[in-house]
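Predict the structure of Alpha/beta hydrolase.
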Amino acid sequence: MPAVTVNGGKVVYEILGDSGDLIVLTPGGRYGKEIPGLRPLAEGLVAGGYRALLWDRPNCGASDVQFYGQTESHMRAETLHGLLTELGTGPVILAGGSGGARDSMLTTMLYPELVTDLVLWNIVGGVYGTFNLGAYYVLPSLQTVRALGTEGLLRMKEWRELIAENPDNEQRLRALDADEFVKLSLRWLNAYVPKPGQTIPGVDDEMFERIQVPTLIIRGGAKDMDHPKRTSLEVHCLIEGSRLIDPPWPEDAWERAMEDRAQGRAQHYNMFDTWVLAAPEILKFLGDR
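Done. Here is the predicted structure for Alpha/beta hydrolase.
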């Protein structure tokens, strides 16, 4: 799989399709480009006449682990800027769901010259959603390093999986300075504390004025506590001229996926399996611009 080096770390990527404008697809959480459900969406967009770039962000998939920046999303935005600059893509379309939506918004805010259009869905917000992110992605590693030093990270399932995909990550984790890691983790954790004037974690609302490109927002489900409908509506208000549509998947798709996962049942929905249903709406939006 091709890779480039950005800020001292390897970033793995793949481009599908031979012609057409380039759409950068970014999933949520710390999931890599092979998370089930992402590739079918990419293939649907390629079938509509576009190219699609899939990439493993730092701390995801086969890319190198990295720890820097105001927040993890700021780090990812800087990394994507470096990746696209290295590839010489010119301006691209950014499309992302959940954490990938936040990464895409922040990239557009910080590097507006890189982006022609923006597509967002499953936007995280609200007290429950933001606290949940901090508790899941920051606190476990922070607590481990405070108790065991950076060697303790090697015992954690999350980082062992990344070492299995990219053996270089073992030494990169061993080389971390414990005090600096704790300092950075506290900064990243602070971004997930809900604050007035921050509709999405770690980003001041005034930053939305920088998004001047055509934007499509697929709103969150009515009872989705991780990606609240309210947050989608607020982002729609903050991005002038944006288009808001109802989700093309069942209203309770996320809750059903979480319930199946928690119960260990055969899943009706993987977390991202329904995303392919957005392909027609995205193609229509891009065709109308």
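The longest helix spans residues 72-87.
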